[in-house]
Each structure stands twice: as structure tokens, then as C-alpha cells.
Amino acid sequence: MAKSKTDTNQFDQDRRSLLTALLDNVPFDGWTDRAMTAATDQAGLERGFAYRAFPRGPLDAIIFFNQVADAEMVASLQNQDLDAMRIRDRIIQAIRNRLEQNASHRDAIRRGVTVLAFPANAPVGLQCLYRTVDTIWRAAGDTSTDFNFYTKRTLLAGVYSSTLVYWLNDNSDDFERTWSFLDRRIEDVLRVSKLTTSFKEATSRMPDPFAVRDFLRRTGLRTLFR
């Protein structure tokens, strides 16, 4: 029997409540079954709900946390005048919003990063990272569908992941060192992008080697280069 919309909404609300309680327990018990049990009791939910909400246990809870953080980041950007910003500034703002909104959960994020670093969980970690950088690019207004689509996301994955690690260990006021680090990493990426663009433009003006070969064959000049 299909679930009604009301049932679905209640399930989503209960899952958010469970996540909120879980984030309170993770600093003490990590992303573990013990933390999930404590969070279920804290949220006033039946014990079996935790594994209906997150069938693979803590791993699915981490994925859901990542999805919620992405959604909250996008929502926060709707209150800002992105049209007045350069693309690079939109990217920086998105990353800042995402990290600042989760400043109270740094320990939970740090422990989550450790869980996703396990070889068996690496594919899940990459999926979460890809989803985040894709969400950032889309929120920034990216509509590319060519090879640049993948290049942009690959470069941003490096920027975001390194900034995240720096932020997790940053004790400066208002994370000022992290934002400086982020600015530098964005500048590095823009420098690489400019070099790549210059290289592509230069090579596009070069003659096609196969066309040159055919020309030499047709004119008989190829014998001069044997």
C-alpha cells in the first residue's frame, strides 16, 4: 500500500528530528549504533524508526546530513543578491555559508570525514563530495553541459575538500584564516583555468596534423620530409 503525502511528510519530519538529536550525540559516541539509539530516545521515536530512516545505519545518516547541509546552503543563498556577484564570489559565498551554518557541528563533521575515509566507505564519500560541489555550481548559476561541466566540478572538489579540512582545524576568530585560505585556493584554480584556456586557444590555431599529412600526400611534397 502506497504511503500518503501526510505519511511521507511525517517520516521526513521524524528523520530530521532524529538527525538533530544524533548530531548532539555524535561528539560523544561518534557515528555509531549507540549514538543512533540514544538519538532515537532523545527524539521520542520508537527504536525501530532509526533503521527505517537510515537502513545502513550511521553511514546513511551521514549521507542525509550532507544532503540537509546542501539544501540549507542553497536556501541561504536565496537571500543574497547573487546576480550582482562574480561567479568566483558566488562560489566563495556558497562555501562560506555551508561551513558557517554548520559551525556548531564541527566535531560531528570531523568524525563523519573520518568514517568516509575508510576504504569501504570511499565511494560514498566521493558521492557526497560530488553532490556538494555540483549543488554549489548550480546555485552559482552554472549551466554548462560540455566537458567544462566535469572540469569545473573536479577543480571545485579540490578547493572544497581542502578548505573543509582547513576549517575543521581553524581556531581563528570567525574562521578568518579559513576564508583567506579559500580565497587563495580559488585564485590558484582561476590561474590554472586561465592557463588551460590559453593552451586550448593556442592549440586550436595549430594546423591539424592529419590535414597536413593529407595535403603533403596530395601535393607530393611529403617526399621532402622522408
Summarize the structure in short.
This protein is mainly alpha-helical.
Describe the structure in your own words.
The chain has ten helices and no strands. It has helices spanning 5-29, 33-42, 49-53, 58-77, 87-101, 106-116, 122-139, 147-168, 176-204, 209-219. The protein is globular, with a radius of gyration of 24 Å. The termini are far apart.
Strand content: under 5%
Overall pLDDT: 86
List segments where confidence is low: pLDDT < 50 over at least 5 consecutive residues: 195-200, 221-226
Q: How many strands appear in the DSSP assignment? A: 0
Q: Mind describing the biggest β-sheet?
A: none
Features:
226 residues; mainly alpha; 0% strand; disordered C terminus
Task: Give the topology, please.
Layout (H helix, E strand, L loop, with lengths): L4 H25 L3 H10 L6 H5 L4 H20 L9 H15 L4 H11 L5 H18 L7 H22 L7 H29 L4 H11 L7
